[in-house]
Amino acid sequence: MKVVIIGSGNVAYHLANAFVLKGINLIQIFGRNENDLQEIALKTGVPFSTKILDNADLYIIAVNDGALEEVSQLITKKNCIVAHTSGSLPIEILQGEYRKAVIYPLQTFSKSKELEYHKIPFFLEAQNTEDYLFIENLALKISDHVEASSYEKRKYVHLSAVFACNFVNHLFARAKEITDAHDIPFKYLLPLIEETTHKIFQVEPKEAQTGPSVRNDVRITKMQEDLLNGEFLKIYKTMNESIKEMYEL
Amino acid sequence: MKVVIIGSGNVAYHLANAFVLKGINLIQIFGRNENDLQEIALKTGVPFSTKILDNADLYIIAVNDGALEEVSQLITKKNCIVAHTSGSLPIEILQGEYRKAVIYPLQTFSKSKELEYHKIPFFLEAQNTEDYLFIENLALKISDHVEASSYEKRKYVHLSAVFACNFVNHLFARAKEITDAHDIPFKYLLPLIEETTHKIFQVEPKEAQTGPSVRNDVRITKMQEDLLNGEFLKIYKTMNESIKEMYEL
Ligand SMILES: NC(=O)c1ccc[n+]([C@@H]2O[C@H](COP(=O)([O-])OP(=O)(O)OC[C@H]3O[C@@H](n4cnc5c(N)ncnc54)[C@H](OP(=O)(O)O)[C@@H]3O)[C@@H](O)[C@H]2O)c1
Ligand SMILES: NC(=O)c1ccc[n+]([C@@H]2O[C@H](COP(=O)([O-])OP(=O)(O)OC[C@H]3O[C@@H](n4cnc5c(N)ncnc54)[C@H](OP(=O)(O)O)[C@@H]3O)[C@@H](O)[C@H]2O)c1
After folding, report:
1. ipTM score of complex
2. Chain A partners within 8 Å of B163 (Cβ)
3. Is the pLDDT of residue A191 over 90?
4. Could you say which of A13, A23, A41, B228 has the lowest number of CB atoms within 10 Å?
5. Cβ proximity of B44 and B53 under 8 Å
6. Can you give the residue ranges of every domain in chain B?
7. CATH second-level architecture of A3-149?
8. Using a 6 Å CB cutoff, which residues line ligand 1?
């Protein structure tokens, strides 16, 4: 099987790297950003180009969600599979006469950060069994967790990731604004953050909840609200209310 | 120096354990909950009792914030230091004629979870230099990070911990409700959660932000809002707004 990756961002970089490490026949990385393409080519040894090769069996488009529809039209070949990597777009976003698929890796990718690829869960969708088995075979070469997933399900996978990753990171960023404003080294929070994450590998997150909100400590929650304003206060009140609702306080 | 710990909850358990490991002369654990006291005595070899010894130099009260004022009155001795361990209460909550102090450990403690004590930052307050040096000496035996902190500053330390730990854990709990409701194994989120935390050991959280909100991807944020209701929707909107505000989107 011959594979082409389209795009040169975070996902393209790591997929290309994972494929090459597992001996998958990645014949080209295609994109519009020469610097980024060059970086991936250097890392993986796979040639890049700004003209798409037409002899691949599978094209994986890893570009911004907003550009996916447009970029998918660049593939004029019919007898091939074209897959996107987005958690929140349907298979039909792909515009072409080829067979369509989705290969959604559940992870937060940054070029600067190495990953253990075998731990990344892959959620797959295809339009027929043969194509599904083809992409499943590919994903299983990289990952220990490969699952079929409809668009309906994939949307909720992505949504849970928004809560557990994107919003969590934003809380870290807001916490850092608090420590910065009060001359507290942010690094003091890191052991606490590490421990918060470690805990839920052993204990259900609902059981692991601590803090004034879950103790319904009105004296302290009121005092803390008085220290806050703007977005900080909105977050505080929203989370406090949500904790109360969850624990029926 | 002779130390007594009052309380038998999560903080009392770990402080007692850390003290004994470092050869600090912990002469008693005092409390009202015999089962819990016994558990700590078994773990540490320190005797427990429901009558407070009166020959200690330092009494550390690690009971619920709400019980602190009441419990602090049990110590009738005058020539000693009495410290509480709360991030969000002033030193004056302690009601007695002894000298007062605060020993606030910035960590999330659960009995079931071992900790690397030397990584826990301690924030200290005392009413005179001699007492400060006394409790500093004690804290430095356990921890690499010991700092003087006024009540004003300690409040913000605790507040940043509420954002970076308590609220983060609540997002994990809400994410689990989403995965549970859609037949997605929550364990699939764990590598993502681990990576989200690892990232901020290397990258500023503000730089590490990913996801539809920071890309201002209105199509996907609108679609995701339509999947949510109740507290989930309130959290989604609040976090989305806050991300927009932070990145001036
Ligand atoms: N990042 C994650 O953590 C993650 C996780 C799972 C799935 N995904 C999905 O993976 C896909 C790619 O995400 P990413 O994070 O890799 O994005 P990214 O790092 O922002 O990279 C996007 C790539 O798309 C290219 N591109 C954008 N518009 C284009 C256009 N009109 N024509 C040609 N190329 C274009 C960009 O080129 P330029 O550099 O020239 O703009 C860049 O190479 C998205 O569908 C995303 O939802 C991402
Ligand atoms: N947990 C954390 O992560 C953490 C972190 C930093 C600081 N702190 C602070 O440390 C202190 C203790 O917290 P914790 O998490 O250890 O609490 P905890 O696990 O809930 O334990 C509280 C202890 O206080 C006892 N207690 C409650 N009311 C009492 C009363 N009226 N008389 C006598 N004993 C009473 C409880 O006894 P029963 O079992 O009989 O109720 C229990 O032994 C608090 O000030 C908290 O703010 C906690």
Report:
1. 0.94
2. 171, 174-175, 178, 235
3. yes
4. A23
5. no
6. 3-149, 155-246
7. 3-Layer(aba) Sandwich (3.40)
8. A 7-12, 31-33, 36, 62-65, 67, 70-71, 85-87, 105, 108-109; B 210
Contact residues on chain B for A178, CB-CB shorter than 8 A? 156, 159-160, 163
Q: Which residue's alpha carbon is at the smallest distance from atom 40 of ligand 2?
A: B33
Question: Closest chain A residue to B66 measured between Cα atoms?
Answer: A217
Work out whether strand B26-30 and strand B48-49 pair parallel, antiparallel, or are unpaired: parallel
8 A C-beta contact, residue A216 and residue A249: yes
For the sheet containing B48-49, what is the strand order?
B48-49, B26-30, B3-6, B58-61, B81-84, B99-105, B122-126, B146-148
Considering every ligand atom shown, identify the ligand nearest to the alpha carbon of residue B40 and give its number: 2
What residues contact A196, with CB distance under 8 A and at least 6 apart? Answer: A208, B108, B164, B165, B168, B169
- E strand or H helix at B19, and its extent? helix B10-21
Which tens digit of pLDDT belongs to each residue from B46-73?
999 878 999 999 999 999 999 999 999 9
Q: Which two tokens stand for residue B234?
A: 């309130």
3-class secondary structure, B165: helix
Please give the CATH architecture assigned to the domain spanning B155-246.
Answer: Orthogonal Bundle (1.10)
Q: Using one digit for the tens of pLDDT, what is the confidence trace for A160-175?
A: 999 999 999 999 999 9
Per residue in A35-54, pLDDT (tens digit) is: 999 999 999 999 998 789 99
Does residue B74 have its Cβ closer than 6 Å to ligand 2?
no
